[in-house]
Description:
mainly alpha, 0% strand
Amino acid sequence: MTLAQSSASRLASHAVLMTGAIIMVLPFLWMLLASLTPQSEIFSGSLLPIPTVDGAIENYGNALSAIPLLRFMGNGIVVCLAILVLQIAVAIPCGYALAKLSFPGRPILLGAVLLGLLVPVQIPTIPIYIGLAKSGLLDSYAALILPWSISVFAIFLFRQFFVTFPDEVLDAARLDGFSELSIAWRIMLPAAWPAVASFSIFSIVAHWNDLYWPLVVTTNPDMMMPSLGIAYFRQAGEGTGNVGALMAGGVLVTAPLVALFLLMQKHFIRGLVLGRH
Length: 277
């Protein structure tokens, strides 16, 4: 392949990627511009709404006053961080054991982890709901957090990451008197920060945007998560005809996820690449 052909091929690839990126970003751009545009001008005929300061004040003011959106986002932060901490606390030692320790039944346990990846979250909903109801935990943080405290995806991801770790370092740590738990937390965890970053984004985005489970276990508006709060805003009639305020709420709910991804993008990509080995 000549230099000209190689450049043309690279240019065509970038053009296709840029076109796909624009198509994916355009709805979010429209949402942002609509949240800054007066309600009467959003559907004025132009492809993209024209933002104004008065429109931004009106829409964001309505979004924050019509529903306790900040409360919903606070619930999301508490629940997502608690779930993430519990998932990592379980997944690190489990992934280390499956990757580096020899014990009877290890292949069976690894197979169970892989099988768990195939089970839809809707399957165990009824028994978990009944257990939470009989325990009096509905409409509580416990109902939103405890069912997700173990993630088979996290266990598998960390197991894949730990497989590539040199055994010589672990043998040296054992000679220095480290226990297996000490090795998992003091050696493996610091080395696994890219995997932690990758999984953190997956976990936080999944539970921040989760509409299904909060809808099942919560009826009290004070316990609603961000996505359920936006749906509540629309169903309650506040956002049915006020597209600008609804888009403003969507921007406020989406912005933390975008900021998180931009902040951890480098570690996210590195963790996925290393976890493939």
